[in-house]
Structures are given as C-alpha cells and as structure tokens.
Design brief:
The complex is a heterodimer of chains A (about 280) and B (about 290). By secondary structure, chain A is an alpha/beta fold. Chain A is built from 10 helices and 11 strands. In chain A, helix 3 packs parallel to helix 4 (about 85-95). Chain B has a two-stranded antiparallel ribbon. Chain B is flat. Classes of the chains: A alpha/beta (about 280), B mainly alpha (about 290).
C-alpha cells in the first residue's frame, strides 16, 4: 500500500518536473484585444513549423499586456498603443527594459448599422458625436433618431488611441472626454454585435472586425479633404486618417525562442498573416 | 499504558486545535481582506476627498487630471439591484410557496432540481444569453435607442437571485410546524387562507433573510451586468437607460491600472464601498434569522 502511494507520488513529481522542463520551450503572449486574433494566427503558424514549441496567446487589453510584461508574467506584450512614460519608468524600477517592435498597422474603422443612411463624416463631426455635442443623426444628414455611442473600456488601447487622435485631434493639451452617455463595451466583438442589432449606434474598432452586418464610415480629415474608407490600400498609402501602429514589447533584446518568434513575425510568411487577418503589414 | 494515554491526549489536542482553526478561519480571512481593502483603498483619500469620491458625478479615471466620482456608479448599482429585487422577490416567494405547500410531490422534486440547475448556470453564460436575446428584445419592445439598459440587467439578475430566494424561503416555509397549518385548516380556513394568514407570517423572518441574501447576490454580481447594462458612467433618469455598476467598474478597469496609482487605489475604495453594502445586507439577513429562532 505504502509502496503504491510512493509510486504515485514519484510519477506525479516527475510529471510536474517534465512540464516545468517543457516551459523552457514556451512563449507567453498577452495584451491587446485588437491583436489577439493576429497573435493567435502567428502562434498557430509558428507551432506548425516548430512542433516542440508552445506559444500561448491571451487578450485582456493593451494595458493588461504591458502590466504583465512589467510584472514579468509574459514574454511578449501585444499593444495597440505605445507605452506611456510612467509605464516605462515603472518597468525600469523592476529591472525590465521594454524593447519596441512595430509589427503591423491597423486602420480604426468607425462603424454604423447598414440601415443607417450616413455614409461619411469628418474628424470634427466624429469628435462632436463622441463628445456629445451632436446627439441626433439628422445633424449629420441621417434620419431623426438619437445617436447611441459605443466605446471600448478604458483598459483598451483602442479607446485611448481614439480619444487622443479623434476626440482630442492629437492635441496633448486637450482635455476633451468621451460623453458620459457612451456605452463602454468590454470587447470589439461586443461593439460589432451591438452595431449589427442597433440602427442608431455608432462605434469604432480595428478594421479586422468589419463584417457585412456593419458599415464602415468614410472619414475625411476636414470638410475640404477627400473621404476615404478603411481599406488595406488606403491605410498603406496613409490616406485613411485614423490608423495606428501595432506593437510587440519584449524585455530587452529578444533571445532564444522569443527572438525566433519575432523573426518569424517579420518574415514574409509572418507578414502575409498580418494581411490575411485584415491588418496592414509593415514590410 | 501511560504512553498510549499520552499519545491519545496529544492526538485529541491536535485535532481540537485543527477544528478550532478551521472554525475561525473564515473570520480571519474576512478580517484580512477588510484590512487589505482599507489599507489600499484609503491611500486614495490622501489625494481625493471622501466627499468628492462618494458624491462626485464624473468617473474619468485615466484622464489628466483624473476625476474619481462614484455617485453614478452607486446609483447604477442601486438601480439594477432594486429592479432585480422588485422582479425576483414576488416570483421567488410565490414559487417557494408553491413548492413547499401546493405542489404534488413529483412536481416538487422536478421544480427543486430545476431551481438548483438555475443556480448552477455560470453568470457569464447568462450574460451571453442576455446579450444575444434579452437586449434586442428590450430595445424593440420598449422602443429604446439601445437595449443595454439597467432594466435588462435587472431582469437577468432577477434570474440569478431567484434560486437563492426560492431555496431559502422554501426551507423556512418547511420549518413552520405542521400543526399551525393543521390547526388553521381545522378551524375552517381554506388552503389559501392558511398559507396567506398563517404559514407566510410564521415564516416571515426566514423569508426576509432569503430576500436579503438574494439582494446580496445581485449587488455583488459582475460578469452578467458588465455584459448587458451598457456601462455608461452617468446617473440614469429611468430604469431604461444604460448604467455602470460598482462591480463592473472594478472588473473592467483592474487590468489597466498601474499599481500604486490613484486609479488603482480608487478601485480598492470602490471595493470598500461594496464590502460595506454587502456587510449591512448580510447583517440584516442575520438579524432576521436570529429573530426567528427566538
């Protein structure tokens, strides 16, 4: 009886040791919800080529990923915004030296329900809509109906980017905020679902989430400029106004498996995956 | 002989200590949690006054300068909780009465296990179902600009509070001595009169406890409300507007906060507010149960 128990114990111990051993062959990636599908696609393709490697991808928001990198619980943080100064300072106090890689570009689409007659908006109109100055669709050429604002939660890099570049128009001194009536949704998919059900809603997310149930608005920098829709060509040629870089952050220069993975991301195959998941490649 | 006695004594002493420790463990944990909450949460009040925190209407935690006013969040939580209570309590008590007093044995067993299953559904599943079915329904039925409202949250949470209310209320109805009912019926009361005039009043303290525990369940619920109440931090005029609750705020923003920032402390301060609210709800429930035992 005792011997049997001992045997079970030894087997369990060796199994846990084996898992720990295997952990040396794994990469933890965490962060941006915008990039989680992209990260997953990279990881699957990479694991196809390297059968013994394990690449785990989780979302949670850019801030979540960066916080995880700082606390040392992930190898790569995916982020749809650049790291804030206080985050970098905080990382340094913990002995982490963030290294930035621009792995792709993303056009931020402003979406409405396909039944909505509004086709195009200027940045000023968008800012007025999301700050609550424009409250009815008829003020921008639509039907007489209240505008329902959909935004992401504050842990989202998309939220921060949209606020800084659309609401505040890139002016760092501006203190403009989303109107407090804006619904804060927990994911891009939640915004997509609500927009497809609600003909009064307007929301924003990475262009990868656009489907037939939503309509992307054509955006112009100002009333004199031309309107562009968020397509691959318009983002690459920099014509579409609301586009942003997507980042990887690692601790110092990547080494070993992490370096191999980052190299794969920048390889032609890796950049093709960026294109396949509706983002814009950097190379 | 002496040795075995001694051994027995030590063994008994050890077991006694272990049981004692297990007994007070939950109290120790509660105290530790409270101390931790207070320690982290009170750091906020070095920079933000308590009045601004509790009565401020603006919740812009990541702006510079940030504003940490949770009044709209408190009101949001209260709206959802009150709405859920108004829906769940009458249905819950009626269903408990039916199960305990009216239903035939076979139906009673089926209903009881059904309610247990309802209690076992994870809240994220209910939230998901609510988002897909309830939210569009609320929007179309009441002709609202959006279905993500306090009312949708209240309806969904009523489902979650119901199992708690039904099972505890049913227990307390069963605890009413049989002779009460028999005496009432013998005096010529109808079945309904016996239930309404005799059994329900006799079980009232247990039912109050059931209601309070149900409310406690609702106010602490996070996932489902986060998915279907819209999360707009603004004081609503009616149940048919989006609200942001205390719990959803903590859950949605915890990941982003930089440890040691005001935002981080503010979320802990929200935790203290929630802790105090649930503490008083449980206290009332406890007093009610105590009252009954006398």
């Amino acid at each position: 009886m005792r011997i049997a128990k001992m045997l079970v114990f030894v087997v369990l111990l060796s199994m846990s040791l084996a898992t720990a051993w295997a952990a040396g062959n794994s990469i933890q990636i965490k962060g941006s919800d915008t990039m989680v599908n992209l990260g997953q696609a990279w990881s699957e393709a990479y694991m196809q080529q390297h059968k013994d490697a394990l690449v785990a991808v989780t979302g949670g928001g850019s801030g979540t990923g960066i916080a995880a990198l700082i606390s040392g619980t992930c190898d790569i943080a995916e982020s749809s915004r650049s790291m804030k100064e206080e985050e970098i300072a905080q990382a340094k106090t913990k002995g982490i030296v963030p290294q930035e890689f621009k792995v792709g570009l993303d056009g931020l689409a402003v979406v409405v329900n396909p039944a909505n007659s509004v086709e195009k908006l200027t940045i000023d109109q968008l800012a007025d809509i999301f700050t609550g100055k424009i409250k009815n669709w008829k003020e921008v050429g639509g039907k007489d109906a209240p505008i329902v604002l959909l935004s992401r939660e504050v842990n989202s890099g998309t939220h921060v980017y949209f606020k800084e570049h659309v609401l505040r128009k890139g002016n760092p001194k501006s203190t403009v905020e989303f109107d407090s009536s804006a619904l804060l949704m927990s994911s891009s998919q939640a915004i997509a679902d609500e927009v497809s059900q609600n003909s009064n809603a307007i929301g924003y997310y990475g262009m990868g989430y656009i489907s037939k149930s939503q309509k992307a608005i054509a955006v112009a920098k100002d009333a004199q400029s031309q309107y562009y829709t968020p397509t691959l060509e318009n983002v690459v040629s920099n014509k579409y106004y609301i586009s942003r870089p997507l980042f990887f952050y690692t601790n110092g220069q990547p080494q070993g498996l992490v370096k191999d993975f980052v190299d794969f991301v920048f390889s032609p195959a890796g950049q093709q995956i960026v294109k396949d998941t509706d983002f814009v490649p950097v190379k | 002989m002496q040795k075995t006695l001694n051994k027995k004594f030590v063994k008994e002493w050890l077991i006694e200590r272990c049981i004692y420790f297990s007994g007070i463990a939950s109290i120790i944990f509660v105290c530790l949690i409270f101390i931790f909450l207070v320690k982290e949460g009170f750091s906020l009040f070095k920079n933000v006054s308590i009045v601004d925190f509790l009565l401020g209407q603006k919740w812009y935690p990541i702006s510079t300068p940030a504003s940490f006013g949770i009044l709209s969040l408190i009101v949001g939580s209260l709206y959802v909780t009150l709405g859920a209570t108004i829906i769940a309590v009458p249905i819950g008590i009626a269903s408990a009465v039916y199960i305990a007093e009216v239903a035939p044995v076979k139906i009673r067993e089926v209903l009881k296990s059904g309610i247990e299953i309802l209690a076992a559904i994870p809240s994220v599943v209910l939230g998901f179902i609510g988002m897909m079915t309830l939210v569009p329904w609320v929007k179309n039925t009441f002709h609202l600009p959006t279905g993500l409202t306090a009312f949708s949250g209240a309806l969904m949470l009523a489902f979650m509070a119901m199992p708690t209310i039904v099972s505890i209320a049913e227990d307390s109805l069963n605890a009413v001595p049989k002779r009460y009912k028999e005496a009432a019926l013998a005096l010529g009361a109808t079945r309904w009169q016996a239930i309404w005039r005799v059994i329900l009043p006799a079980a009232s303290s247990g039912i109050l406890a059931a209601v309070m525990l149900g409310i406690g369940r609702v106010i602490g619920e996070t996932m489902a409300v986060m998915m279907i109440t819209g999360n707009a931090a603004r004081i609503p005029d009616s149940l048919f507007q989006p609200v942001r609750t205390l719990t959803a705020t903590v859950a949605a923003e915890m990941g982003e906060t930089v440890r040691g920032s005001d935002h981080y402390y503010a979320l802990f301060a929200i935790g203290i507010v929630l802790f105090i609210i649930t503490f008083f709800i449980n206290l009332i429930a406890d007093l009610a149960v105590h009252n009954k035992r006398k």
